[in-house]
Every structure is written in structure tokens, then in C-alpha cells.
């Protein structure tokens, strides 16, 4: 009988500058330090069954990353959550932990809300202009064959973007697990708004909606 | 001038994780009122963060209540260019302290090909390169293996610490003289450091006195970090490490570490087990390396390998340096139980005659037994390290490398379990170029001229006829520069500075190494790179590193050279009588078993 632990992590500061694989490895080591041993995959190179809902791009912080961890047998939720949080490295912190009925295959990402902060005195003005231009821009996205594909932001944009002194805020949906990079969308919007020299200070995912996918 | 790399700039850099710190077990102890010490590694983060020596000192310093220690690593070329363009200076990872504001900056000099990295580091810190030009800011201290011949770097450092740092680092901190309003009294501190054993102050024009290498007599009781740094991004050695032994008395005559880190001092198996358990618990690593110059020579290795899997479950283990002569059934079974990715041995020379010259002490029978044992127990790949250009080397020695590899493969074929395909076997020969190093019996011999080394390698390549034998050759150009720098004196300091100004940084990275930068640097200072590297030194003339006393007597080195020429071996003093190398004295003695 396995248990499916779903944790929500904040990934900020130094952890935002780690690749997805490095972040996964950091989490796995934190689990070991916490004395938690996830179930392992079968095969020649068994791997811990730790699945992030999505791969966060390098340099993007997040206040809400979802991870599914399978354990053989029951997991003592409160104790596991406390121990894991104590053993997470700087930049990773536990927000919530729940045990879901399994077996689960993954956590399917649905949509993510981002906040893009800009540098400089014109930041608020540029954020407002970028919020207006964002629905009309097209992002050039590299495809799996090494070529490029133009993707209208409207294919992924949900709701109306907002822009003010605190940043440019917008929500992007996932289709078949894929979405646009928030940084690419923001840069395209800033270009279209006539603020190409505006420097992006940070990109933070504020909320990630997911749904469990049964095995 | 602002220090550190801001987030907006990180986005444009390759591997920004190099510059953010925040590793598990990093220490940012409260700093108010304490001495500030920044430990610097003049190579890129993923190399430096794996360095055990730096971690040992980091832990010792941060455990004290009179000092705190931060770290810094050399920014990669993209970050260095961005920092210069933006007018940023190098800062420590933990606190973002500009290096120029630290009290002491300790730089680890690992080998000849990262010397320019130290200059790059000083420049990025906004410090003058020459110690004489630094009238304020931190005292810049060098440590690490390259301090065994400090003279080529003498003008750039205020002090050198030669030898083991565990005890001396605390003495340096205690002797530091602080000014009432903060900072160090530089002159008074240097005067106090002059009395510490192992410290060399190069301030005068020439070495003033013999400098005795520091030796930790009791390794078993020496501090060892179990709170090892766990980097977020992948490092070159992404595992926990326990140093099980320091020093080696095999006496390989080309090996600087084998002479300069004597005597052999072991950690007891019980200590190793306890350190291993604690380190794995505190790091979360699932792999543990038992590190030393020759781990299979530890008197308790089989006991440790038997007990470790039980003591540290769900962990894989690695032995980075196996010795063919010590690879018996017990070791094969223990190592084979963990992993079968490949085995590595270092015969170093292709014929028994040359192996006697270098005192390798391995016979053909030893090597065939290794091949038979390894392949019969499931390994399919073996890597062998050899050198070309060794003193007294002849053509038959070079061809002998290919012959030895072929015979090992034939032995392997006959040892394979029935039904195993022969095509799956492979031997990789990793060929390096012999570079004469100070404090060894071959310190007087020259580096073989590059064109002759190339001819010998081509001879070897033609001699290898089996497709299952792969050949890899270490960069000849990099070896040439290494040889020219290894045995130089203070006259090479301007050469190193010129090379750095010509763009030489990260010289040990093959894609960054620029021979022309070095050739021009030697020429600008009136030297020939080739002449410096290939010079045979007069055995009776003074050497630039004579004033560094490793404990091994110069007479012993000369006698060893004589024995090399006549093909005589000197037995390991762990197995037979004392060879009278001179290192054992008082508390400093071999500690095994």
C-alpha cells in the first residue's frame, strides 16, 4: 500500500537559480536528511519517485511549486512535513503538505500566475504598457527539432493582465503540460510596449494550479 | 564600488547557480567583533566547492568564536567580463563581503595551471596584484600544494602556509593583531606570523630562512568536517568524502605528493565509520568516497569495506585510487558489490625495467592478476594510467605500454565466464606527460622536448592494434607550461603576470588554455618556454625550493635518484625496514594499524 504525499514549496533566493534537475536533487537530499525514503522506481537505475508538477525555468522564483512524492506504506504527515521543512536548503521552504488517495501518476499543471518586477523609475509605466500589449504579442518558441514556432500569447493567456508599480501580473495556462515561458512573454510585451531597454528584476510564480492525475 | 553579482545580471550568465551560495551546511555565523577570513579558490565554483582542504579549514574557522569564514570562487569568464563591464568587485558568497574588506584572504594554490586564477581573483577583488603595493585591505595568504615551491608566486602574496592547515590556521588567527577601529595591523600581524611553523613571508628579496612544512601528527584525532557543503548545482565530486589516510610511502619517484605529504597517517576504521555515518546524515548524500593518495593501502581497508554497507545503508561507495598490487579478492568482492562501472589502475610505465626506475613496484604478474580477477568478477572496462617521457625511457618502454595492454586483454579473455562476448571488453589507456616536480628524486630531470614526446606518442599509437584499446593523451602544450612553472623561481613571477595580462586564465580547462599567451609571456621576460621546461638541473646547485623543508632529506632524494638510474627499487617502509627518508621525528611518525 503506497501513500501519495503532495507538497507545495516556495522556491526563492538561491534556489531560483538552480536548474530543474539540480532542484530535484536538492529536494531528494533534503528528504534523506529528514529520514524520509520515497519509493523507488523499478529498473537498472532506480530513482526516487519524486515528481514536480512542472519544470520551473532557471531564474524564475516561485511561491507555489507542487511536488508529488510516493512512499511505500503510510507516511506520518505532520512529522514528515516538519522534518522535511527543517532540512530544506536556503531558498526552498515548505508551504503545505497533504496526503492524497492514490495511486497517482502525476500532478497535472493547469495554470500559473506570474508577477514580473522591473527595475528603474519608469517601471510602473512600463508595467502598465506591457499589460496592455501582452494579449497582442507573439512569442518565438524553439521547437523540439531545433526550429522556431511563433506562438500568440493569447493561446495561453487567461484573464486580463494587470500592470502597476508592483509589477506586471498575468496568468498562463498549460496545454498538454506545456506553456510559454513567463520571461519570454514579458520581454515580448515590453518590446511591443516600446520599453525594450527596461531591465527585468525578477519573475515570480505566485500561484500554480494543478490537478491530480490517477495512475 | 559595488560588490557581488546582482540578480538582474545573473540572468545573462551561464550557470548562475555558481554565484548565489546558500548551500546546505554553509555557515554564516554571527560576525560582529570577529576577525573576517575569506577562503578563496582560484577556479570555478563546481571545482572549488568539491575541494576537501577548503572545507576542512572552513569548518575549523567557523567553529571558533574569534573568527568567521566565508568562501569565494573564481567567476567564469562570462561573469568576470560582466563584472568588469558593470564595475563590480568580487564578494564572498555567504555575506556578500567585498574581498577587499576582509581581514585575511586565503587563496588555495592547487597546481601550476591555476596560478593565473589567483591573479584574476585578486584583480576581480579590486586588490593590487603585488603584495608590496597593498598597504591596506586584507593580508593575502596562500596555501595548498603549490606552496611547496612558493617562489614563482612570492611577489603576489603576503604570506604562505606550507603543509597541513588544521592546526596552523588557528595559530594564524590567534596571532593576528587587530587595530582598535577595525582591520588588521598588517606589519604587526606579519611579524607575529613569522614565528609560526610552516609560514613563509616572502617580503624580502630572497628567502630568509628554512621553512618547515606543517604536519598534523595525529590524523585520527584531527578535526574533519561532517557538515560538508551540499551544493545546489552539480559539482565535480557530488558526494560525501572521508579522508581515510594522508601521506604515502610507496615512493613512486615522480610523485610529489608521495614525498611531500609523508609520513603515512591513517584514520582508524572505527573513526572512519563514525565520520561516514555522521556525514551522510548531515548531508543527505547517497554516495561516499573514501579518499587518500592510495586508499587500497590503508591497513584497515577490507574491514572498513566490510562494515560500511551495514553501517551506512542505501549508500554507494567509491575508492578513487586503487593500487593494482593491493587489489585482492577481498577488495574486488567489496567494490564489486557496490558498482561495476569500471576500474582504474596506474601502472605508469609499460615495462618492468621502467617501473623499477620509477619505483612503481608493480610486476607483470600483479597486473595480469588484476586483469584476471577484475574481468572474471564481472568488470568489462578497465582504465590504465601511464606516463611517457619518464627519465631513462626508451622506445621499448613506450611500445611496452601497448604490449602490456594487449596481454592484459588476452588474460581478460581467458578469464571471462563461459558465454561472455569478448567484444564487450575494453581497456582505456590514459597517457600523461611526465612533468618533473620539486621535492622528488626526479626534480633535476628535464621535461622531454615536445617534438620528441609527440614522436613517442605516435610510436605508441602505431603499436596499439586492438580496437578494444582506447588511447587518450593529456595536452602536451599544457604539460609544457606546467613543467616550465613547476621548477621555477621568483624570476617566473613576471612571466605569470604577463601570461595573465595576455589572457591566460583557467589554464587547466582545455577549451580555455592558450599556449600563445604563455609563449609570449616567457618571451616578454627574456625566457624561452621550452628551455625552462626542458632544463636539466645541476644536482649540486641550489634549487629555488631548497628552503622549504618537507622533512624528506635532500640526501635521500639524491640517493633515490641514483637508485632510479640503476633500476633499484626502494621498498615501502610500511612493509620493510625504514628507508631513512628523514621525515619521522618526534611526534611525526607513521601511524598505521
SS field, number of helical segments of chain B: 20
What kind of oligomer do you see? heterodimer
Distance between the termini of chain B: 55 Å
Most extensive interface between two protein chains, with residue counts: A-B, 29 and 24 residues
Using only C-alpha atoms, the radius of gyration of chain B works out to 24 Å
What is the beta-strand fraction of chain B? 5-15%
Binned, the helix content of chain B reads 25-40%
Largest sheet of chain B: 6 strands, mixed
Round the Cα radius of gyration of chain A to an integer and report it. Answer: 19 Å
Parts with pLDDT < 50 across at least 5 consecutive residues of chain A:
none
Helix content of chain A: 10-25%
Residue runs with pLDDT of under 50 for 5 or more positions of chain B? none
User: Main sheet of chain B: which strands, in order across?
Assistant: 2-1-3-4-5-6
Which secondary-structure class do the elements of chain B indicate? Answer: alpha/beta
The total count of strands of chain B amounts to: 17
Structural class of chain A: alpha+beta
